[in-house]
Amino acid sequence: FRLKEKFLRKVIPELDEVWKMAATYNIPPAAFNLSFILSFTGISTVIPGIKNTAQATANTEDIKAISQKDKKAIIDLYETKLRHLLDDLERDETK
What we know:
mainly alpha; 5 helices; about 0% strand
């Protein structure tokens, strides 16, 4: 598993806002993440990790249109809280 426990302990609480958004769309977090990626112009395909048939099915059933407001909120969350965590991860991996 690529992500270290230290990193996950920092980032998971920051994603709570995103999981709450997913709930407003009545879809699982993974489907919300795929929906977010597919909301960008020019992106028509995603290749998610799949461990079993149920995950493969779930990754195709719950794709929804994400509002511009929610899309902006996720981008803002990345810029204000998550980007520095990813920068830390990259620094740790290059040590």
